[in-house]
Design a protein that fits this description.
By secondary structure, this protein is of the alpha/beta class. It is built from 5 helices and 5 strands, in the order βαβαβαβαβα. The radius of gyration is 13 Å and the shape is globular.
Length: about 120
Amino acid sequence: MKKIMIVDDEADTIYLVRSILEAEGFEVVGAGSGVECLEILDNEKPDAVLLDIMMPDMDGWETYHKIKKEVPGMPVSILSAKGQKFDQMLGLSVLKADDYIVKPFSPADLVERVRSLFLEA
């Protein structure tokens, strides 16, 4: 069973993603901020991270860099309401995120995109 960490400052998003992914057999752990993500990353040892961009304290861009520094091979997918092409290009081409999922998303799309993180690994 793959463990996915969802990092989002909105509890409703964590709940929704958890419900969708757990129904498909994934284990899900939530973090309400980039700081919390980094604090529990080592203990939880997720197989992949779904990361929001717009968060207080430490935004997703900074959190992404710190995750990749701590766990270089960790698949990280951006999960953001920032759906403009520029933001997607920044996430995929500049940061080299493994995927960029735009909110709102369909449950089926989310599941397939999470599964694809492990097909490429």
